[in-house]
Each structure stands twice: as structure tokens, then as C-alpha cells.
Specification:
This is VWA domain-containing protein. The protein is an alpha/beta fold. Helix content is 49%, strand content 17%. It contains 10 helices and 11 strands. Strand 1, helix 2 and strand 2 form a beta-alpha-beta unit.
Length: 299
């Protein structure tokens, strides 16, 4: 009888402990959800309109790279809309915008980009606006890419200078969760801005990787020993999260992808970007969950 009583008591205590743990987990989950919902988002998209999107120079039979970009942008805009819809109207104060660097010479492209600077707050928030954001981005970004491809005048990509002189002013606002999504193949090159300081540079090309001897099995040791990488920026970007999409290494070097990611990882870490991810150029259907998880989940 005594053993039966002890077993019953032990069973009751175990149930009580597990119940308490489950309640704690649920409370933590609810707190995280409430925190994510109440956050104000400031999402920036930086588009690399270099010849990586050229259907002549870099054709892809599975899906053209510019079409992949459009799919990624669709996922970003859907995540932004989804975030807005989880908030009460009076809580909404969120932003999304699109940038290039350098700006294209085509005035039409720049005009469309200005139209994609969206601010949604309690004064203009409506179901109609929230439901239109993704479609607006889809239509207007398609026009931008098609115009750039038609012009066939690719000036390169100066992402380094964007970080050095613009990112703090244009992509970071106090009181917001600041997210920068970069669409690039991972290479950085702009004809009008090439700086080299010993083993460091503000650009990265397949030629530079080969020139630095980073096309062999000991590439990692060489990067560490000779301090190869991007020229360090003095900015503190601890209030910025970065998602890099579309890495597309040259097929001539089996270590190219790892080298590109090592350059980016070192550079973003030096600028104190605490949360970042660097992803290859995959099909939009495979990237949709990754993009939305990054944007919608708090850390």
C-alpha cells in the first residue's frame, strides 16, 4: 500500500514538473512572438546590377539569374507584408526601400526605385495597401531588371563603397530592426573605384582570387597568414542584420565559393554585424523559407 502511495505521489510530481516546464516554454514563445510583432522593420534591398544579370554573358538554362533575383525580392516583400499583418494598425511604423550602387544612368530605373521607398504607418496603413506591396514590388522590380538588361550597359557593383559611405545613413534607423538584403554574385568591382592596400582591397574578382593564390587547397591558411580580405571599414554596424543572396562562384576554381564567403564573413564581422547569412544562387522556391525565416524570426 505504501509503495503504491509513493508511486502515485512520484507520478503526480513528475506531471507537475513537466507541466511547469511546458508553461515556461509557452510563455517564452509567446514573449518572442509579441516582441517580433511589436518591432518596427526597416528593410533595405541592395541590388547588384552588374553584368552578372546579363542573359548574354551569364545565361542559365535552369533559370536566369535576374529571374532568381526577382523571386528573392518577392519573398522579401511577402515577408514584409506578413510582418505588417501581424501588427495592430496603431503599432505599424515600418519601411522598405531598394538601392543600387552606383546608381544606373537610366533615369527610368532610378525613378522606379524611388517609388519603391515604402513607409507604412498608422496614418496610411490599410488592408488594400498591405495587400498591394508584394505585387507593386514584383511589377516594378521586373521593369528595373528588364530595362537594365535591355540597356546592356553594366557599370559594375560598388558594394564596398555603399557600406563605406552610405549604409549608416540610408539603411540604419534608431528604434528599428534594420535588415539589409544584398543581391549579388559575391564579386565586387567598379571601374571608377579600385583600392588596394597591401593584401587588402575594396574589390573582389576571379582574377584577384587567382592573383592572390587562393585557388589551392591551402587557401584558408593563406588568407589567415597573409591577411587577405576587404579593406576594413570603421563603421559599427551592430544594429544591422545582413542577408546576402545569389553567391555564384566561377567554375574555374573549386575553392572560389569558400574564398568569397570567407572575404564577406571577415568583412561583416569586422563591422560588428552580429547576424548575417551568405547564401548561394539557388532557385527562389528553395530560398523562400530561408529568406522569410531570416526576416520574420527574431534572434
Amino acid at each position: 500500500m505504501k509503495n503504491t502511495l509513493h508511486k502515485s505521489l512520484l507520478f503526480f510530481l513528475l506531471i507537475l514538473v513537466f507541466s511547469c516546464k511546458e508553461e515556461t516554454k509557452n510563455e517564452e514563445k509567446e514573449t518572442a512572438i509579441k516582441s517580433a510583432v511589436s518591432e518596427n522593420y526597416n528593410i533595405s534591398i541592395l541590388v547588384d546590377l552588374s553584368d552578372r544579370i546579363s542573359t548574354k554573358k551569364n545565361p542559365n538554362p535552369t533559370m536566369e539569374f535576374y529571374q532568381r533575383d526577382l523571386g528573392y525580392i518577392k519573398s522579401v516583400s511577402e515577408a514584409f507584408s506578413q510582418h505588417l499583418k501581424t501588427k495592430r494598425m496603431r503599432q505599424i511604423d515600418d519601411k522598405m526601400q531598394l538601392f543600387f550602387n552606383p546608381e544606373p544612368e537610366n533615369p527610368e530605373i532610378n525613378s522606379i526605385a524611388n517609388q519603391l521607398r515604402i513607409t507604412v504607418n498608422k496614418d496610411n496603413a490599410s488592408k488594400k495597401l498591405l495587400n498591394s506591396i508584394s505585387d507593386t514590388y514584383a511589377v516594378k522590380t521586373t521593369t528595373i531588371y528588364e530595362s537594365a538588361i535591355k540597356d546592356d550597359n553594366y557599370v559594375g557593383s560598388d558594394i564596398w563603397n555603399f557600406f563605406d559611405s552610405k549604409v549608416t545613413d540610408q539603411c540604419i534607423e534608431k528604434g528599428y530592426r534594420n535588415i539589409l538584403v544584398i543581391l549579388t554574385d559575391g564579386y565586387i568591382f567598379y571601374e571608377g573605384s579600385q583600392i588596394k592596400n597591401s593584401s587588402l582591397s575594396n574589390y573582389l574578382t576571379p582574377q584577384l582570387i587567382k592573383q592572390n593564390g587562393l585557388n589551392t587547397n591551402d587557401w584558408k591558411k593563406k588568407i589567415e597568414k597573409e591577411n587577405f580580405g576587404f579593406i576594413k571599414s570603421d563603421h559599427d554596424l551592430s544594429n544591422l542584420e545582413v542577408l546576402v543572396l545569389g553567391i555564384n562562384p566561377s567554375k574555374n576554381n573549386p575553392f572560389e565559393e569558400k574564398v568569397i564567403k570567407a572575404y564577406w564573413t571577415k568583412w561583416l564581422s569586422e563591422m560588428n554585424v552580429k547576424h548575417f547569412e551568405i547564401k548561394n544562387a539557388d532557385l527562389p522556391s528553395n530560398m523562400d523559407k530561408i529568406i522569410k525565416d531570416f526576416i520574420l524570426h527574431t534572434n
